[in-house]
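From the methods appendix. Each design record in this collection lists the tokenized structure first, followed by the designed amino acid sequence. Records were kept in a plain field format so they could be parsed without special tools. The example shown here is representative of the layout used throughout.

RECORD:
FOLD TOKENS (315 positions):
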């Protein structure tokens, strides 16, 4: 059940889960503690093992008919029974077809009409940034710069395709050999959409949701930039930038811009601070971040200074 609380006299509902929240705010989907039977095959893909699970779906490592490794995401039975959730899954499949393969796990196949909708993606060897930091500690030096630049490039690519991800967090970014890969488009949306299919709900993961969403603004590209800032701070320090504690405490820190950035390298700190600005109109665009951090990675001076971003931005 969502937690209800008030900010500025307005009551709002946000899921209390600290993990992925997609689909969790749909009132007519009830959770169940019954064990889920592991399938042997999904859409002709032979299941080898479960590699992840969330409130909406499970993800399996599998082998296709040619013996190639794939990752198969399939909705949980209770979720698949809900029309709204099925429509979200269909939207995820459609958006994945529009994302450049360089920056995500490419979509290989899908069936959105079967009893339990599923999609198959190329299997990418590499941990999520969350697992990497938990196991080995913060990223440092060149590795951190490459992560920050690569993630900015990936976010910029999504925005060029007219897509806002809305759920960037440590568990949704893979560290592949050729750069970060963004996964899980369960609550992504097109920037061209005039309305929001999830209007009235705040979807995402507490601590990574941009502050404007708590003021009933439909999240635009600036919401992903906010998450980029949090992810870079997390990768650099090993700490969630808005800490832990209750949902209320986390949201209040986000709303008041109280990010813990201690330990973020001075080279990146101004850009992280700019990305985490509570005003979305004052954040740099992902393309500018990609250019600036890419220049830092390559040993050059960025064209713009992050500290003066607000004065040079015409947005």
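DESIGN:
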């Amino acid at each position: 059940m969502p937690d209800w609380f008030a900010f500025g006299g307005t009551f709002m509902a946000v899921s209390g889960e600290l993990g992925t929240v997609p689909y969790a705010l749909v009132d007519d989907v009830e959770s169940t503690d019954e064990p889920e039977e592991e399938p042997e095959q999904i859409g002709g893909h032979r299941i080898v093992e479960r590699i992840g699970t969330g409130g909406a779906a499970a993800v399996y490592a599998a082998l296709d008919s040619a013996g190639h490794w794939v990752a198969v995401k399939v909705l949980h039975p209770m979720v698949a029974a809900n029309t709204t959730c099925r429509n979200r899954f269909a939207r995820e499949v459609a958006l994945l077809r529009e994302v450049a393969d360089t920056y995500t796990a490419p979509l290989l196949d899908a069936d959105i009409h079967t009893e339990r909708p599923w999609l198959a993606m190329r299997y990418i060897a590499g941990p999520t940034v969350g697992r990497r930091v938990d196991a080995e500690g913060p990223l440092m030096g060149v590795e951190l710069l490459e992560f920050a630049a690569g993630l900015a490039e990936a976010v910029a690519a999504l925005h060029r395709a007219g897509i806002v991800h809305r759920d960037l967090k440590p568990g949704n970014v893979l560290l592949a050999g050729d750069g970060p890969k963004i996964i899980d488009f369960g609550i992504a949306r097109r920037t061209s959409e005039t309305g929001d299919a999830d209007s009235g709900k705040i979807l995402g993961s507490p601590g990574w949701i941009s502050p404007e969403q708590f003021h009933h603004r439909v999240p635009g590209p600036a919401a992903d930039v906010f998450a980029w800032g949090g992810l870079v701070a997390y990768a650099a320090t090993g700490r969630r930038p808005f800490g832990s504690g209750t949902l209320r405490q986390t949201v209040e820190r986000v709303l008041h811009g109280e990010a813990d950035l201690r330990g973020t390298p001075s080279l990146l700190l101004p850009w992280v601070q700019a990305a985490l600005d509570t005003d979305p109109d004052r954040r740099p665009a992902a393309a500018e971040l990609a250019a600036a951090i890419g220049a830092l990675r390559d040993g050059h001076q960025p064209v713009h200074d992050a500290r003066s971003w607000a004065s040079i931005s015409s947005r």
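APPENDIX NOTE: The two ends are 38 Å apart (CA to CA).
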